[in-house]
Amino acid sequence: MPKTVGIPRGLFFYEYYPLWKRFFEELGAQVILSEPTSKQILDAGVKSCVDEACLPLKVFHGHVLNLVGKVDYLFIPRLTSVSKNEYICPKIGGLPDMIKHTLQGLPRIIDTEINLRKSSSNAYKAAYEIGMNFSSNSTEIRKAYKKALQSHEAHKEKLKSGILPDEIFSKKSARIHPKKELTLDIAVIGHAYNLFDSYVSMEMLAKLRKNNINIHTIDMVDESDINQMHKALRKRMFWNFGRRAVGSALHFLGREGMDGVIYVMSFGCGVDSFVCDMVERRIRQNSDIPFIVLTLDEHSGEAGMDTRLEAFIDMIRWRKLNESNIPAYG
Length: 330
Ligand code: SF4
What we know:
With about 325 residues, this protein is an alpha/beta fold. It folds into 2 domains: about 5-160, Rossmann fold, CATH 3.40.50; about 165-320, Rossmann fold (3-Layer(aba) Sandwich), CATH 3.40.50. The chain is built from 14 helices and 10 strands. A 4-stranded parallel sheet has the order 2-1-3-5, with helices on one face. Strands 8-7-9-10 form a 4-stranded parallel sheet, with helices on both faces. A two-stranded parallel ribbon has the order 4-6. Helix 6 (about 120-130) packs across helix 7 (about 140-160) and helix 11 packs across helix 12 (about 240-255). The longest helix has 23 residues, at about 140-160. The chain is globular and about 65 Å long. The termini are far apart. The mean pLDDT is about 90. The site of iron/sulfur cluster has 12 residues, from helix 3, helix 4 and helix 13.
């Protein structure tokens, strides 16, 4: 019987699942995913997690509980940094400890630290340590890691082309560019785990597409463009997400034909609180592109979210049809 590894469908799942899945499978393990986010998963997470945590952490707790009793190992790496000289978020760095101290009856947790802040070679060291749980053969682990990186690169290319993670994982055909009259181009900036979890985002991206909107996310922007735009800041960003969010927002600002920007933030997120403000100031100061902030927490109601989204889209369409001189403040 192969060993089973549970991967919670939250946080960095949307970016790294193909890499982790391939790595474990190459080493003979069977990967088991938690079920898609649902009311039950969210409620279980909210009940078990500390009140002060942001929504994505609560959702993650729910996904961990969904895997309890089904797997030999839980994969919850200690993600300190995924890029040189940058950090992710202290809450994600401390996640394995938070999980161990709040939930009971857990299987063995693989909580190896991944910290690329100082050196990218740490990624292989971490993979080696993780792989040792499944194989004592270092060549086999190295080969599995190489193949996993290939899967990761292929995944990033798909995201860049506009295919959403749900479409990639379910192999559903993607509907990337709606072709109808009054198509709009709107940038949607936010954490992947908020945007791409359709329960958490209340199907925001699908609704936008149904409304003939081409959506543009951070993952669709070249890393080199992000870095180039990010140089406009006086100080280098400390957070990986901050650099990518600000860099891509500035990139979208300079792109011809962008009709609006939506910033999706997590209530209680320290990183979002200043990154969102920075993005908003830049947009207001340098353009007249309509901008809206939508905040997600466990109390967010779908009707309220839909109303704000529809009003925003209607306003942009009306403006395109009737006026060309309305400021971003409406
Ligand atoms: S970056 Fe923000 S939303 Fe993400 S885990 Fe940290 S506090 Fe939560």
